[in-house]
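Honest question from a wet-lab person: if I give you the sequences of every part of a complex, can you actually get the arrangement of the whole thing, not just the pieces? Trying it with mine:
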Amino acid sequence: MADADDDLVLQCQKGNALAFELLVRKHQQMVHALTFRMTGSMADAEDLAQEAFIRAHGQIQAFNGGAKFSTWLYSIAMHACLNWRRDEARRYQAYANCAEEMGTRQPVAAVPEDEMARQAQAALMRLPSKQRAAVVLTIYDGLNHAEAAKILRCSETTVSWRVFAAKRKLKRLLSLNGKSHE
Amino acid sequence: MEKAMNDSELESRLKSVRVPRRADEYWEDFPSRVRAQLPPPVVERPQKAFLPQWAWAGGLAMACLMFALVIWPSLQIALKDGRAIHRELAQLPHHLHILMADEHGMHYLVADQN
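Yes, you can. This is the full assembly:
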């Protein structure tokens, strides 16, 4: 799998645009999943995924095969998300709407699964972006703290601290949401 | 008493969040949309090995320099010598004049025509 990527990267470095399109096709779902978890929005996830691929294309000459292409691309996408500042106000408005919607729902005996998921996504979006990144990498993608630290370009201790702080906040937010439904 | 949420409960709660599905057409079109946004490839123009106008300009400049540094001073000396000789010979109009040039410059011989 990695070999196929390496061949395509080599062809990209020689200016073959079709090879890059094949790389996009191969990794697009992984990048979209990351950008969606980081933004909570389908439209922003699409914009960021495009931005990540365009950045990757711009930096492809610097890729020397020291890491897997997918890890390298993942790192670019994550940093595109962390630098994401556009429409910040709109994003906060979305959280507010989401929270309001959750608060005004009719109490039900058992909270439906999709509602639980919505609450979890809303809570995730209320984390500072670096904490959210640490959660996405370690919980959703199953990376260990050392691997996450490499992608986030920080120390392992920093990742551990961010994960700890994020979990504490998420537990608090999700417990509050749970109570509002009782 | 309320039971606090533990790590594994939190993780399973977070993992319940699914990335929304997109239509197959979206995945078909996305790579070409990215490709359309890529900057056009930089076409490297072959470097011209020889520019005739620069060669001509350089040659002309070199020729001017040679003229100014070498030829012009020699010419000045020769003209100066010539003028002096002609001035002196003009004072002896009825004598035979022989002009000679060697490595030391121009010389003349004057002989009586008789």
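Two things worth pointing out. Chain B touches chain A at residues 2, 4-5, 7, 10-11, 13-20, 22, 27, 30-35, 37-39, 41 (CB under 8 Å). Residues 52-90 of chain B form the longest helix (39 residues).
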